[in-house]
Amino acid sequence: MGASIPLLMASLASVLAYVPRQRAFTITRRLSMSFRPPDAAQPYRPPSWAAPLGNPPEHGRLQLANLPTPIHRIKTGSNANKGGILARLDEFNIRLYIKRDDATGGVELGGNKVRKLEFLLAEALAKGCDSVVTIGGEQSNHCRATAAASRMVGLSPHLILRTRRADAIHERKDDIGWTGNVLFDRMAGSAIYTCTPGEYGRLGSQKLVDGVCGHLRRNAQSNPYPIPVGGSNAVGTWGYINGVDELMGQLESAQKDDPSSPFALDHVVFASGSGGTATGIAVGLSLAFGSLGEGHTATSDQRAPHVHGVGVCDDPDYFYKTMAGIADDMGLSLPSDKTAEQFIREAVTIHHGKGRGYAVSTEDELDFILQFATETGIALDPVYSGKALVHFLKVVEDDPESYRGTNVLFWHTGGAIGLYEKGDDLLERLSRESPVKRIDAYGTKGGGDDIVAI
Question: Is 140 a catalytic residue?
Answer without folding.
Answer: yes
